[in-house]
Amino acid sequence: MQRKYVAIGAILMLLSVALGAFGAHVLEPNIGEKATGTFETGVHYHMIHGIGIILAAFAAGLGADSRKLLWANRLFVLGIILFSGSLYLLAIAGWKWLGPITPLGGVSFMIGWLMFALAVKGRNK
């Protein structure tokens, strides 16, 4: 699991940097300041949780509960898709109907961090 999620986290980080550059250099002149802010929020959370995935993979190597860390990583990936993905589409396409999906991604992030904390607190001996 560790190598797989380090790779997934690294790819998600690469994607977040590419999307951030795309937003700053290509989108900003075309979508306006408010939409750019929405897009940047998506990139910000995308990047933070890409790092979280990598950290969780390393925590598994330190003896933390790997099942809980697996769920943390799954929830981080789901959160990136739901939270950041909905913000990207809202900013680019103006799809306001995605608004109710964004909080589901936020909840995924929060439960993921809870699972991370429980995994480290209840580490294997």
UniProtKB/TrEMBL annotation:
Protein origin, superkingdom: Bacteria
Statement: the UniProt record of this protein carries the keyword Transmembrane helix: yes
UniProt xrefs under Pfam families: DUF423
Keyword Protein transport on entry: no
Residues spanning the membrane: 47-64, 76-95, 101-120
Keywords, sorted A to Z: Membrane, Transmembrane, Transmembrane helix
Family of the protein in this entry: Belongs to the UPF0382 family.
Name of the protein described by the UniProt record: Uncharacterized membrane protein YgdD (TMEM256/DUF423 family)
Organism: Fontibacillus solani
